[in-house]
TrEMBL record:
<keyword id="KW-0239">DNA-directed DNA polymerase</keyword>
<dbReference type="InterPro" id="IPR002054">
    <property type="entry name" value="DNA-dir_DNA_pol_X"/>
</dbReference>
<dbReference type="InterPro" id="IPR010996">
    <property type="entry name" value="HHH_MUS81"/>
</dbReference>
<dbReference type="GO" id="GO:0005829">
    <property type="term" value="C:cytosol"/>
</dbReference>
<keyword id="KW-0548">Nucleotidyltransferase</keyword>
<keyword id="KW-0808">Transferase</keyword>
<dbReference type="Pfam" id="PF14716">
    <property type="entry name" value="HHH_8"/>
</dbReference>
<protein>
    <recommendedName>
        <fullName>DNA-directed DNA polymerase</fullName>
        <ecNumber>2.7.7.7</ecNumber>
    </recommendedName>
</protein>
<dbReference type="InterPro" id="IPR043519">
    <property type="entry name" value="NT_sf"/>
</dbReference>
<feature type="domain" description="Polymerase/histidinol phosphatase N-terminal">
    <location>
        <begin position="344"/>
        <end position="427"/>
    </location>
</feature>
<dbReference type="GO" id="GO:0042578">
    <property type="term" value="F:phosphoric ester hydrolase activity"/>
</dbReference>
<dbReference type="InterPro" id="IPR002008">
    <property type="entry name" value="DNA_pol_X_beta-like"/>
</dbReference>
<dbReference type="InterPro" id="IPR004013">
    <property type="entry name" value="PHP_dom"/>
</dbReference>
<dbReference type="InterPro" id="IPR037160">
    <property type="entry name" value="DNA_Pol_thumb_sf"/>
</dbReference>
<keyword id="KW-0227">DNA damage</keyword>
<dbReference type="InterPro" id="IPR003141">
    <property type="entry name" value="Pol/His_phosphatase_N"/>
</dbReference>
<dbReference type="InterPro" id="IPR027421">
    <property type="entry name" value="DNA_pol_lamdba_lyase_dom_sf"/>
</dbReference>
Length: 579
């Protein structure tokens, strides 16, 4: 898909324009980039409807549509090539370091000739950055910390970055006549938050044909290897993909083996050995006789276990739980939440705070996803760059939502819109909207959007104080981490959980691909403490509502059940969870 390549180019252009101090235009490119990331295949849209269809897309104006067309036709954009000549800096590479925006990057290039991360690290290590005007010792230290953090997560990709491409390839393989069965395996099937490489498994009687097809798919930039059972390629999105072809009778055991995790497999193999059996990717064997292998269920059954959902396969207690279940003991495996269980999304932004779509459009999209409700929760006034709403505009928005609702009343639909907002937790734990106004909303979200570096005790107190506010129902992205970009805030999570339970505050599982916050181990602790959670997308565009899949996956990896997640409930029961 060309979407990600175009998005990267547009982010680069936005950064460049922002650096040059150009007004408004950077924002248009940023919006287009964000939109493309969440969009279905842009090339398909173009092939079907031409330039016109591109212009009709909500975040795309004439000039950007022309650039997309140019890229789809020529593989490059002149305007972007010119910028790169004038300013040969790896923007996104450097901007990945937390705290470095376009203005700082410009100074670093002009004063020290810094073009990439390597240059940056050298300069920081030899203390050339601290003396620059506007930088200082602290910034220099933060830069080094930021680079160290990037190195730790290097080579791994966000699940959300990879998934659209994987799903597209799975669909193409499925359509191939020679393919009898196909599935993702590895960390993609376990829905890990980051992925090293993507693994795919296929059943076919004609492996040669399948391999030819796979290595000549559009988007393959390098072939690492190609045989009759395995092929390995590098994709233009940057990640590697392995394809394995297995015979039908071994599909289940191969899927079990290649889904992993390695740690899970080590234990399942040991259990097999204890039963006098052998378990490998070809099957389960009793001596030389194959006793299982066709399906995963058969494989687990042959070694005395119930089937275990891939998201749980990390050797974090799931095998013990499965063994107990097999013995009729409790607790067995959790009945983890299903991908179909969510009834609405409570963290969605509208064009009132600079989001891409109107309240009506967001609601329509939520309805099309089969939801019963959507909660509109725009940013509030402290976040000026996000056009945060003040008290007056919040009340105006309330009227607008009531108007939309009364108009759709006679449509006999059960669907409804809830009115919330996403307030900012300030340094002292208060929020930026008056209580008299918060009281008038259906529910209130609060989150930290500034002052991330605070010592542990203070940060914990800050969040607890927000939870004690009787108007605040949900804490958004509670730890503030950005995967591969920013570590979580220093917090005492045990204390936060106790306070959440005492104040009946709900913790969010934010589905945004770089957030996934709470992370899986925290979700499990929250569930064990009896703290309720909500899975939200934080959508700034209607196409981002589909991110919910990643949040649900995260909840499953955290062993969460339907009852732990409030937005699995129908409206009347949902409302009871709000203070
Ligand atoms: P990744 O790619 O780093 O995100 O993680 P995975 O889990 O996809 O790991 P990968 O791609 O190296 O291998 C895919 C699966 O194959 C892995 O989850 C389990 C299985 N596997 C690979 N190597 C071994 C091994 O040496 N022993 C065992 N038991 N299983 C392995
Ligand atoms: Ca893998
Ligand atoms: Ca692999």
């Amino acid at each position: 898909m060309k979407n990600q390549e175009l998005a990267k180019i547009f982010y680069d252009i936005a950064n460049y324009l922002e650096m040059e101090g150009v007004a408004f235009k950077p924002y248009a490119f940023q919006k287009a980039a964000l939109f493309l990331e969440g969009l279905e295949d842009v090339e398909k849209i173009y092939k079907k409807g031409g330039l016109r269809a591109l212009e009709d897309l909500p975040a795309i104006g004439k000039s950007i549509a022309l650039k997309i067309e140019e890229y789809l036709k020529n593989g490059k954009i002149k305007y972007y090539e010119q910028i790169k000549k004038q300013f040969p800096v790896d923007f996104s590479g450097i901007a990945a370091v937390e705290g470095l925006g376009p203005k700082k990057i410009k100074i670093l290039y002009q004063k020290l000739g810094i073009k990439n991360l390597n240059d940056l690290e050298k300069a920081a290590k030899s203390h050339k950055i601290a003396p620059l005007f506007g930088f200082g010792e602290k910034t220099e230290k933060n830069i080094l910390e930021g680079i160290a953090f990037l190195k730790r997560s290097k080579g791994r990709f966000l699940l959300g970055e990879i998934m659209p491409a994987v799903q597209e390839i799975l669909a193409k393989l499925k359509d191939l006549r020679e393919v009898e069965q196909v599935s993702a395996a590895g960390s993609v099937r376990r829905m890990k938050e980051t992925i090293g490489d993507a693994d795919i498994l296929v059943v076919s009687k004609n492996p040669a044909k399948v391999m030819d097809f796979f290595v000549s798919l559009p988007g393959v930039v390098k072939i690492w290897g190609k045989g009759l059972t395995k092929a390995s390629v590098k994709r233009k999105e940057g990640f590697d993909m392995d394809l394995r072809v297995v015979p039908r009778k071994s599909y289940g055991s191969a899927l079990q083996y290649f889904t992993g995790s390695k740690e899970h497999n080590i234990v399942t193999r040991k259990i097999a050995i204890e039963k006098g059996l052998k378990l490998n990717e070809y099957g389960v064997f009793n001596g030389s006789r194959m006793i299982a292998g066709r399906t995963e269920e058969d494989v687990y059954k042959a070694i005395g276990l119930p089937w275990i959902p891939p998201e749980l396969r990390e050797n974090e207690g799931e095998i013990e739980a499965a063994l107990r279940q097999a013995q009729g003991e409790v607790p067995g495996l959790p009945e983890i939440i299903d991908y179909k269980d969510i009834k609405g999304d409570l963290h969605c932004h509208s064009d009132w705070d600079g989001g891409e779509n109107s309240i009506k459009e967001m609601a329509e999209a939520a309805k099309n996803m089969g939801y019963e409700y959507i909660g509109i929760s725009d940013h509030t006034k402290f976040l000026r760059i996000e056009h945060g709403l003040d008290e007056k505009r919040l009340l105006l928005q309330k009227k607008e939502i009531e108007k939309i609702k009364s108009k759709s009343k006679n449509q006999k639909s059960k669907f409804t819109i809830l009115h919330g907002c996403e307030t900012n937790i300030l340094a002292d734990g208060s929020v930026d909207i008056k209580d008299e106004v918060l009281e008038k909303l259906d529910y209130v979200i609060a989150g930290i959007h500034s002052g991330f570096k605070m010592e542990r005790a203070k940060m914990t107190e800050r969040i607890i104080r927000a939870m004690e506010n009787p108007n605040i129902d949900i804490i958004a992205h509670p730890t503030g981490r950005l995967i591969k970009k920013r570590d979580e805030c220093l917090i005492d999570f045990g204390k936060i959980l106790r306070a959440a339970r005492e104040t009946n505050t709900i913790l969010e599982i934010n589905s945004y691909p770089e957030r996934l916050d709470l992370k899986d181990s925290y979700i499990r602790r929250a569930k064990e403490t009896g703290v309720k959670m909500v899975i939200n997308t934080d959508s700034h565009h209607k196409d981002q509502l589909r991110f919910i899949e990643y949040g649900i996956a995260q909840a499953r990896r955290g062993w969460a059940e339907k009852k732990d997640i409030i937005n699995t409930q129908p409206l009347d029961r949902l409302l009871k969870y709000f203070k």
